[in-house]
Design goal:
The mean pLDDT is 89. The longest helix is centred in the C-terminal third of the chain and has 27 residues. With 117 residues, this protein is α+β, with helices and mostly antiparallel strands. It has one domain. The chain is built from 2 helices and 6 strands; from the N terminus they run E-E-E-E-H-E-E-H.
Length: 117
């Protein structure tokens, strides 16, 4: 069985790298939330964060009569043929998960590569 190297988690999901024979496979990130898994490259993960931000911008609730009581928003994903129907709370949790993952990957890179002695 393959092992994992956790990158980031919250109450909604988890992001991790797969390990194979004790080597961490850092070319793709496994993102799991809401019984859904995405296996994304770092570029796709950044794209997903942009798509999440776009969804927030398109669904600005301040001028809406529903005032954050919408049942679902349509969230585009880096997988062209897959969109997700999510609530506002789920969208915020997904954003935290993806944003936290991107931050942790950048921090790890900085500490490992840039701060080398």
């Amino acid at each position: 069985m393959q092992q994992i190297a956790q990158i980031y988690f919250n109450d909604f999901g988890v992001a991790f790298y797969w390990k194979k024979e004790e080597e961490i496979l850092e070319d793709r990130i496994q993102l799991v939330f809401k019984e859904t898994g995405f296996y994304l490259s770092k570029v796709e993960l950044d794209c997903f964060l942009d798509l999440i931000d776009t969804t927030f911008e398109k669904n600005n609730c301040t001028s809406c009569a529903m005032k954050n009581k919408c049942h679902k928003f349509l969230l585009k994903t880096p997988c062209e043929n897959i969109d997700l129907a999510v609530s506002k709370n789920e969208l915020m949790q997904i954003k935290d998960l993806v944003q936290g993952t991107v931050f942790q990957i950048q921090l790890d890179h900085y500490l490992r590569e840039i701060c080398k002695n």
